[in-house]
Amino acid sequence: MREENYVDILKQHLKTSTTCWDHPKMTELYQVLADLNNIKFSAYRTAMKLRRVQKALRLDLLRLVSVVDVFREQDLQHGEHVMDVVEMIHALTGLYERLEEERRAIVVNIPLCVDMCLNWLLNVYDSGRNGKMRVLSFKTGLVSLCNADVQEKYKYLFRQVSGPGGLTDQRYLSMLLYEAIQIPRQLGEVAAFGGSNVEPSVRSCFRMAPGKPAIEVSHFLEWMSLEPQSVVWLAVLQRVAVAESAKHQAKCYICKQCPIKGFRYRSLKQFNVDICQTCFLTGRTTKGKKQLQYPIMEYYTPTTSGEKMRDFAKTLKNKFRSKQYFSKHPQRGYLPVQSVLEAESSET
User: DSSP assignment, residue 330?
Assistant: First the structure.
């Protein structure tokens, strides 16, 4: 009965409203996400917003193997098949029932989780509220936010657009990257990742296999390991999740937090200058204190003695390098695919 009632409500909204309807709890969640807009770095701002979405939808508890099993049970094998709302609800109900079975110690409000997750998926892939979505869209959204190592997510997503020989061509890779970029687009963050035009990203990926009309999963994984601009937020999301439980035996140079929790940032140009994630990501400074100098090392797990020695040696070496050296060797945390202006001019 709950599924029928939800479908009736959704259909009524489709008929009577030209605006997108959100579940009250989803509206609350989006209001909370606005608190993260003071984060200066787009990839981290996006990843931290998605981490909150992931937790609110309980997708952080869903293992990839369970998600894939439910996809198989629901016969969601053809990426270009178009699902309707009833099919989506059946699949999501199966996912959360599986979660309840596997995590008996955790209370799972299945109706609420299904409603919230359906709401989010429709916002990302069906903003016009037609009540339709491709299987590839459905899978990309859920796999991106489920609980799995990011490499396993990459492999699974690549398989969804590869042929019998395990190869994919530019057209199918474009489809996958287009589905992926819809996730930050829904948060209003798409410009920082190259816009909705994915062709430069496809060309960038195919440079891993020069002259070939199709690529293997190894080429795709090699490209993704460089954290390309258009999908860097997915790798950062994993680091955000891991960093949540990290404690570093160091004091923040700005706010004096000790131990530092979450991400820790250390200058490899200055000795003993550590900054916590809040101060670094929001650009907080203290009057009379020097700003953190690049290059900077990010830690999302506690450091070992070997890593400390390595960083000391790097800092010592950097002390004798000039500003001109660092201007010629800029530090980037991602593989640039295109400029934002290029994205805007070529976006369709």
Answer: -
